[in-house]
UniProtKB/TrEMBL annotation:
A Pfam family: Aldedh
Protein's UniProt name: Succinate-semialdehyde dehydrogenase/glutarate-semialdehyde dehydrogenase
Annotated signal sequence range: none
Keyword Cell cycle: no
Gene Ontology MF annotations: aldehyde dehydrogenase [NAD(P)+] activity; glutarate-semialdehyde dehydrogenase (NADP+) activity; succinate-semialdehyde dehydrogenase (NAD+) activity; succinate-semialdehyde dehydrogenase (NADP+) activity
Alphabetically ordered keywords of this record: NADP, Oxidoreductase
Segments forming domain Aldehyde dehydrogenase: 3-455
Amino acid sequence: MAIATINPTTGETLATFEPHDAAEVERRIGEAQAAHLVLKATTYAQRAEWMVAAAAVLEAEVEATARMLTLEMGKPLAQARAEVLKCAKNMRFYAEHAEGFLADEVLDDPASVGASHAHTRYEPLGVVLAVMPWNYPLWQVVRFAAPALMAGNTGLLKHASNVPQAALYLDALFERGGFPKGSFRTLLIGAREVAHVLEDPRVKAVTLTGSEPAGRSVASTAGSHIKKAVLELGGSDPFIVMPSADLDAASTIAVKARVGNNGQSCIAAKRFIVHAEVYDEFVGLFASKMAALVVGDPLDPTTDVGPLATEAGRDELAGLVDDAVARGAMVLAGGSAPDRPGWFYSPTLIVGLADDARLVMEEAFGPVATLYRVADREEAVRVANQTTFGLSSAVWTTNADEEAWFIRSIDAGAVFVNGMTVSYPELPFGGIKDSGYGRELAAAGIREFCNLKTVWKG
């Protein structure tokens, strides 16, 4: 894929960028390594000052930056604005909490290990490579970069090739806040060059958010070189609705959970699993609310759903829907690409999926929801757990026993009760099974790329 900004609303190429050659990649890795040696010697207070200053830059430039995100990947402008501000919030969160999260932990009874004193300490690993996707061009990166830099690591970013302007904005952002030159560097390279960068001995670890195949490839390279990896891969999150649920609220949140970011989110609710007692009522509410969504120019404030980010992504989504219909599924809303320029796909609701339909097991990365009627909570969990993914989940119930049972029974990195999955700086985020391993955000996220060193004193 060429490194270019192509407006998904129109298909127009807005800007193209020359890839970095081998000499430039080498120079940037060297800068990141040199910056790490400086950064790890600074205090948390100094890093926090720089991080807060970088957050202030984001906040001051929110309107222009949000517009840039919308033009590059098509998310509605209000959502782009929210993404920019969420990044600033995350940066301020780690500026405030990093020192506490990485504080030394003293053993209360050192005599039990034959010592006069013993403690553990967290130390940065060094240069960390981040391989990031286009769906949240700033947030996916900043949720790694903020804790990594606050811990004393430095970052190299290989961003998706269709969001180069976001990548270059991030290349300068942290230095604009005061961080040493090279603390965070973008590499304008293709996917085939990732392994070469990861193999470099100066690069100590890797984090990837993206597809399962990409995760397998990067994890294989990292493993062969004994390097730490954190993977956040695909998801096909269940959204379970039980008879005690508030159906109006559940259906309203279901729409938001499915079509936010034009449906292009790993943690979006994708499979709606509804108890038979309330199935018809919920489906009626859900379908009417999906059909009422406004599809259009994401720069228009009245738009609910913009285009998919790439033509290939739109075609892949259409292929999943067409396969399901060919195998007997029924479309209750949407089900086609509107006749207009750009890479749009109508908000879609599908029922009656055959077991062999691709949509049963594969991730639908766009505004397509599948519905399942289940007889009881046991069947709901069986359907929820039947895919190879395990990122997040949502359960709607007001029955306390039922709530506790679902929390225990669902195979996922998170369970949200009577709400939709959202990532917060304060909560660990990540999945299990083919959705990856490791955690981002909260204390767990900043500790992923640190050496936990034990200190023993006789």
